[in-house]
Amino acid sequence: MLKKKCKTLCFCLLSVGTGLCAQNRLKLDLDAGPIYSVLNTNRSNLTQIKDVGQYGVGVNLGAEYKIWKTLFVSSGISFHQKNFKIEGFERKEGKYTKETNNFLSFPLLVGGYILEVPQGNSGVWLKVAGGMYTDYWLTRKRTGNYMVFTELQEDGSFNETVVTEKYNFKENENQLNRFGYGLQGQAQLGYSFKSMNIYAAYNGYYGLSDINKANRDTDQETKIRSYMLSIGVSCKLN
Q1: Is residue 207 part of a domain?
Q2: Per the domain annotation, does 168 fall within a domain?
Q3: Which residue segment(s) compose the domain that 143 sits in?
Q4: Residue 45 is part of a domain; what is its CATH number?
Q5: Cα(200)–Cα(194) distance, rounded to whole angstroms?
Q6: Percent over 90 (pLDDT), the chain
Q7: Taking residues 129-143, what's their average pLDDT?
Q8: What is residue 20's predicted lDDT score, i.e. its pLDDT?
Q9: Looking at the predicted structure, is the pLDDT value of residue 93 above 70?
Q10: Neighbours of 155 (CB within 10 A)
Q11: Contacts with 18 (C-beta within 8 Å, 6 or more apart), sequence order
Q12: Distance between CA 157 and CA 137 in Å, rounded?
């Protein structure tokens, strides 16, 4: 029930954010940088398996609208490459499985300026924001190192092979959930050159949705946590 309420709230917030971005006096942001992702799941019964975080690439395009004094709302669209790696398999079936996953993300944040530069002036500014996001799983590619059990060697070992495959979301044999949602926190530190800005940003993404659609055990949910550092430019539209 809580998940359904969160989904409903998030999509409603996105609709509001889209309406705000259609108005005048907008600030547009564009930034890019590395994004680090890791699976968050319970593997207490699988002692030989370890989740390892991996880096990918992220690009954020956002629009900010000031609603009152230093307060603002922002929305936009992002491309995030959320990669992760699973090392060690039970019964020595393989050494690792590495995944490359591409997502589109749609945030809606509310925040405020801690330091602000007056309109038309130059200087340092700092702002923080928080809210929710929804995302859509575009593509998934897996690369794994596996044992070839039909190739038993004289010393009792098996040959290994590396297999790369693209996941077919139309068939979706693993019942993956392409639509996700979660909480997002953001901080930006920048310098204003009157109408243009340069800035560095940090974004943290705390996934709340299970990537396995068929899972009914809340203790075995698998979620994605991501952390992104980026640099970008922004401009004000009056």
Answers
A1: yes
A2: yes
A3: 31-236
A4: 2.40.160
A5: 17
A6: 55
A7: 96
A8: 40
A9: no
A10: 5
A11: 75
A12: 38
